[in-house]
Amino acid sequence: MPGIAMLRALWVYRSFITSSVLREFHAKYRESLLGGFWSVANPLTMIVIYTVIFGQLMRPTLPGHEGNPFAFSIYLCAGVITWGLFAEMISRLSGIFLENGNLIKKSNLPRICLPAIAALSALVNFGIIFGVYLVFLALVGHWPGWSLLAMVPLLALQLMFALGLGVFLGTLNVFFRDVGQLTSVVLQFWFWLTPVVYTLPGLPGPARSVLQYNPLLPLITAYQQIFLEQTVPNFVSFWPVMVLTGVLLLLGAYFFLARVGEMVDEL
Amino acid sequence: MSALTVSNIAKAYKRYPSKWARVLEWLTGRVTHQKTWVLKDVSFTVRPGESVGIIGMNGAGKSTLLKIITGTTQPTLGSVTARGRVAALLELGMGFHPDFTGRQNVFMAGQLLGLGIDEIQDRMPDIEAFAEIGEYIDRPVRMYSSGMQMRLAFSVATAVRPDVLIVDEALSVGDAYFQHKSFERIREFGKQGTSMLIVSHDKQAIQSICDRAILLKSGEVCLEGPPEAVMDYYNAMLADHQNQNVKQEALADGTIQTVSGTGEACVIDIYVSNDKGERVDVVGVGDAITLTVLVETKEFIPRLVLGYGIKDRVGQVVYGTNTHLTGQPIENVPAGSRVRFDVSFAANLGVGSFSVQTALVSTETHLVNNYEWRDLALVFEVVNISKPLFVGLAWVEPKISISRDMSTEELR
Q1: Do B72 and A106 touch (CB under 8 A)?
Q2: Which of A179, B43, B48, B49 could form a disulfide with A173 if both were Cys (CB 3.0 to 4.6 A apart)?
Q3: Which class is domain B4-230?
């Protein structure tokens, strides 16, 4: 079973994978004076800017939160941070085999380790940003409480969705380099077709019915619900995304396994 | 029981007529590509502890074969089975990151080679000691010289004895001292039971290290047998296609001989003989020797001049002249004649190996008519038998007179 062999390779190379993730993180800040501070500084700046612009200057109001000056910032960050994880994963994974062409051509490292490293790296970056966001929520007195636990299954679902799609695109990109270009274009459209900077109820009816087909919509709105409304979303509404995730994972794994041997000849 | 079994390996690269052809093939399943076979049905086995040399001209498929054995590339047909760990000294330094210290990189590169963290931890002192880079081990790799980087990479790659080791003989690891040290380690592995697969052009290396040699030609095993026989066949094969105007051929010692020219005349034999008339390839410093060049003409040549140069080990011409400069051109040479040149001189050369280049031309340069130009036509060795020890390229015999206990007046 090639699928089992793939999972076993991940297990055998687990320490290589974790070292690579740590190394990627260290490499970013290694030669800077302030080091890890920069990983916190970037998301902090984002939150401060959103809070000042949308909370104090523009004052858009969310229904039911008119009295809270931080409401829109909380809403915005919940979407931007989780979308950021998705976008980082997709764009990194779609180029993962091309970027590591040298390594693939010259070593016999199990190829599946590469997407694993990229996914975990994205998760580490997300973890830091998310941590800053949680501190911000605690400071402004909008701590989501127990509903925060609902993030775990939702993030896992999003991760699997991105992994399946990303590995598929990454493999395809080796053979057709257009895929990488197309991915970055599609990601831009996808961002604006997801209610991150605007709200779903604020849209006209026809636009809303189009957005229903966006598989990220239930996830992003659920995150926003957890942090803004501080309530647990209805998990039943996720079954189409779950089915799609299952299909993408199978497709990604099947396609990767079928083409992994041929890959090195094309790099 | 074999350590490595290569059975019926074949490798084809796909070539598509256009970029869209692949899309078409994937969507419709109709085959649009053509296959270029770089390996065809290669099979052999390597017993535990055995060393096998792989030789072949450029493009014979050696690299592809090694990549398939190491698992980097997948064969189109056939399979490779290896017992135990396979290590390759082909791509040293994979996984090194310039911003991390040598020690951190050792862990990373080691894991990339399939070693466990504790295995690397255990061997860290050995790796450090073997690489001989001292305190640099805790400095970023970007501060290393390329030699230091190679030494460290070699030390990691050979930290754990593999069951099958693949070595590219062209591998150069640092200076001569470290070369010797690294080949000593490779030989030690062989004694301990590691099977080896060595790619080389070096007749000496193949014959001294290998138990068996395999000659690859256009992706197929052309000959397999004792190293001596296979190497001779290989050299004959190289000599076989000499009817081109410019060609380079690898000599047995790995150097490249270049022959060019229009081919109206050619050197058919060249040798050095001593004062007794015996052919020799080792001469003593200062010996009277004769360089004989036998030339055959293919066509009528109005004016024939022989030029020759004696070069040292690094290619510097020590002495050169031609029969135009000595006033001895020969005129109106008919086709099919043989001309013998005997050049006698004293071998006033330093100790070392020297090569002879020859030129068959019509004037003092080869720019007017270049019938044949042959580099490395002959190699001979100069040894010091009867002279006092000296250094240098040339034997410049001195007469040293020494005077002692003189007054300042006499010293003037």
Answers
A1: yes
A2: A179
A3: alpha beta
Tell me the per-residue pLDDT of A48-58, one tens digit each, with 9 for 90 and over: 888 888 777 76
Of A27, A108, A264, the CB nearest to B97: A27
Confidence of residue B115 (pLDDT cuts 50, 70, 90): confident
DSSP type of residue A225: I
Pair B130, B178: CB distance under 8 Å: no
- pLDDT over 80 (residue B329): yes
Q: What is the pLDDT of residue B257?
A: 64
Tell me which chain A residue has its CA closest to the CA of residue B99: A27
**A169, A87 Cβ separation under 8 angstroms:** no
Q: Which of A106, A168, A264, A267 to mutate to test the interface with B (most CBs of B within 10 A)?
A: A106
The runs of H, that is alpha helices, within chain A are 2-12, 14-29, 37-50, 71-94, 96-99, 101-106, 113-139, 151-175, 178-192, 205-211, 217-224, 239-266
pTM confidence score: 0.72
A37 inside 8 A of chain B by CB:
no
Interchain CB contact of B118 with A (< 8 Å): no
How many inter-chain contacts (A to B, CB under 8 Å) are there?
51
Per the prediction, chain B carries an average pLDDT of 83
A27 and B111 within 8 Å at the Cβ level: the answer is no
Residue written as token pair 């083409």: A259
Q: Which of residues 99-118 of A touch B (CB under 8 A)?
A: 103-109
Q: How far is B68 from chain A (nearest CA, A)?
A: 10
Per CATH, the architecture of B247-383 is what?
Answer: Distorted Sandwich (2.70)
Rg of the Cα trace of chain A?
A: 20
How confident is the model over A49-68, as a mean pLDDT? 75
Instruction: Indicate the angle between helix axes A14-29 and B102-112, nearest 10 degrees.
Output: 150
CB contact under 8 A, A103 and B74: no
Whether the CB-CB separation of B307 and B369 falls below 8 Å is answered with no
Q: Would you kindly state where each structural domain of chain A is located, as residue ranges?
A: 2-261
Four-CA torsion A229, A234, A237, A241, nearest 10 degrees: 80
Note whether B321 and B345 are within 8 A (CB): no
Token digits of residue B222: 């052309």
Cα B310 from Cα B290, distance rounded (Å) = 13
pLDDT in tens, B171-207: 666 677 887 788 888 888 888 889 988 887 666 667 7
Judge whether residue B366 has pLDDT over 70. Answer: no
- Rounded to whole angstroms, the Cα distance separating B93 from A45 reads 39
- Judged by a CB distance cut-off of 8 A, whether residue A19 touches chain B is yes
CA separation for the pair B171, A223 (Å, rounded): 56
Whether residue B254 is predicted with pLDDT greater than 60 in this model: the reply is no
Q: Looking at residue B412, what is its pLDDT? A: 59
Is B234 within 8 Å of chain A by CB? Answer: no
Q: What is the dihedral of CA A204, A208, A211, A215, to 10 degrees?
A: 150
Query: What pLDDT shows up at residue B385?
Result: 82
**pLDDT of B2-28, one tens digit each?**
888 999 999 988 888 888 888 888 888
Handedness of CA B95, B97, B103, B107 (dihedral sign): negative
Say what the ipTM of the complex is: 0.76
A23–chain B Cβ distance below 8 A for any pair: yes
Among A107, A111, A179, A255, the strongest candidate for a mutation testing the B interface, having the largest count of B CBs within 10 A, is A107
Q: And the tokens for A239?
A: 């079954």
Statement: residue B313 has pLDDT above 90: no
The CA distance from B349 to B309, in Å, is 13
